[in-house]
Fold:
Amino acid sequence: MPLANITAGSAFRVAVQLLAVFIVMLLVAGTVLVSAVTNTLESETRAQLEEEALLFEDIYDAEGAQGLTKTIEELGRQSVLFDHALGLFDKDQVHLAGEVSLMPDFVGWRKTRLTLVEPQSDKEQNYHARVLQLDSMTLVIGRSTAHIDAARTQLIFWLLITGVFLSLGALVLGYLASRRSYRKLQRMGQILKAIAAGDMTARIPVAEKPDQIDLIAQQMNAQLQHLATLVNGIQATATAIAHDLKTPLSHAQIALYEAGDKCDRGEDPEQEISQALSKLEQLNQTFDTILRISRIQAHTDRSNFAEVELHGLVEKIYDLLEPGAQDAGIQLTVLPQQQAELNLYCDAGMIQQMLINLLTNAITHCPSGSHVQVSAVRQGMMFFSRWKITVREFPRPSRTLFSNLLPVSASPEPHPATGWGWHW
Amino acid sequence: MENANRVVSKTIILEKVWDLNFDPGTTAVETHISKLRQKVDKPFAEQLIHTVRNMGYSLRAPR
Structure:
């Protein structure tokens, strides 16, 4: 799997974008945090130095210059204040006591470098220095900034470590998510290729815990199923059309051949030509019916729609076909009406033709002596033709024949004579 | 008898009798005509119902 395809995936790109935002936020937050910690520590250090200065002033007031010098030297020997630097100078800037060998050129607070008598390392250290005047003497109290620098360094180090690990984690997660999406899309592409190659049974696999791609896959599967149904329907329709056209076409062809033969013999071919015309008219009607069905399916033509009372329709068709049934030895009767008016808004011609076909098939295929009873009933949202055939069971048309009768309006309870239609 | 001596096509019969505006593709009309003939013509020497080939039927009064 090419890496470029994965890193170009939306999941990875989103991860990178989020990472960029995270890094910027980390830099800003880190800067603020480091500044806050540094300021806090420096403030604390200055407060301590201020207290120490007051203490030395108290010693100077109580014990004089000698007492102060002695105290400073004592503290230097004990190394109690290891990160401190003290220095005492006279009015001529001569070093009197402490580690600081050179008197600073300021009075007050400053972050500066102090020159020590015995430096602990080659590196010059920064100090927070408090320089104050005690009469003619100058006292320097310094505290190394090493602990603050160390704290700041540690803080920055761990912030960087956290940032690096979080960045790597985000990149890895983004990469994995992108790879997962890419694999799904790749499978989807393979399935679509298979479908394009003619395999209408192929479906896109959907995970047990569907994500957004799986939801799209489900939608596509539903559409593919619909497409497969349509293709199968088209194939079945094409077969049915071919079946319906073959017989009249053959008859027309035979009639025209016979007409030609008659012409060759010098006889009148009118009868054969009339037969051929009749068959061609039949073909024309077949195409007309197909076009009407297509228009109804496409909801583009409802010009032939009208209210049809089904009980009356059944009676009329019964009246038309009963003599033929009688000749075939079939007893055709209409069951008593069990329901009041059954009005259907539909293509009257189509539904009449459908009932005629149903009954004609029953008359043609039931054995002599059968008893066919027919009636129209409504059950819920559907209309059915109810059949009761005795002597021998005839394949029931039942639901499938009328299952396409669906409400045209959205009303769940259509009132009589409206809201129903021949809806394929 | 309104259409005596006039040829009435199968399509017109279907439309006028059963209100069908199309040819249902059955032999129902022929069957009905046959039944009618049995009742109207068979008992008598003179036939009233005549078939006009490829056109329809006509009802002709005896001369």
Remarks:
- The domain at 3-116+124-150 of chain A is CATH 3.30.450.20 (Beta-Lactamase).
